[in-house]
Design goal:
about 50% helix, mainly alpha, about 110 residues, 6 helices
């Protein structure tokens, strides 16, 4: 087992950024569902929140490999949208979009 690092392998710091500093388009161009989900935390005009949520879900439908993965990311989107007070818009769009989301399995619903 390797027990020492070469000098070029050692880092002494990193630049810290907040997701809110990044543009929503930075994440929307991704093909990775976990990165697409980060759009909800990025900088976008709150007046466009319904449009952004719709784009997130459309991209998730496109790039998730199966129904279980899609359900997992829609669940995460729901939790994140609650923390940003966007849960009503998210719920409305999920009901309109061609995906199935069983709200009764949601832990907040069960409470």
């Amino acid at each position: 087992m390797k027990s020492n690092l070469k000098p070029e392998e050692v880092f002494t710091g990193f630049e810290l950024i907040t997701l809110h500093q990044l543009s929503a388009s930075d994440f929307l161009s991704s093909k990775v569902p976990a990165e697409i989900l980060l759009v909800i935390l990025a900088d976008f005009d709150k007046k466009q929140s319904e449009r952004i949520i719709r784009l997130i879900i459309e991209k998730l439908i496109l790039y998730c490999e199966n129904e279980n993965e899609l359900r997992k990311f829609v669940n995460k989107l729901t939790v994140l949208s609650r923390s940003l007070n966007l849960d009503e818009q998210t719920k409305k769009i999920i009901q309109i979009m061609p995906i199935t989301y069983d709200i009764t399995k949601d832990s907040f619903y069960q409470e």
